[in-house]
Specification:
It contains 3 helices and 4 strands, in the order αββααββ. With 90 residues, the chain is of the alpha+beta class.
């Protein structure tokens, strides 16, 4: 809800565990803004969300910052219907 309140889009945690997780963006203002201004792109551009998700996992599981690696596997800006992020503990 905080992510949405900041005006960044709608985030859904599919799975969140101490060692891994999966997060989906059903909408992303970063991706949608990029598409509107420049069109679709061949690489994900949602770096803000990658950092946000990493910080959320660290806070929830009481770990230091940068304890999680987040990779955007699917991206709205690349033409996918949602953006999908894989989370792995480092």
């Amino acid at each position: 809800e905080y992510y949405s309140a900041l005006g960044l889009g709608k985030m859904k945690f599919i799975f969140a565990g101490d060692f891994s997780g999966e997060v989906v963006l059903e909408s992303s203002h970063v991706d949608e803004g990029w598409i509107k201004k420049w069109g679709k792109f061949d690489k994900p551009v949602n770096y803000i969300t990658v950092g946000f998700i990493s910080a959320v996992f660290a806070a929830v599981f009481n770990k230091p910052t940068r304890s999680y690696s987040v990779t955007e596997r699917e991206s709205i800006v690349c033409g996918a219907p949602v953006s999908r992020f894989a989370v792995v503990a480092l």
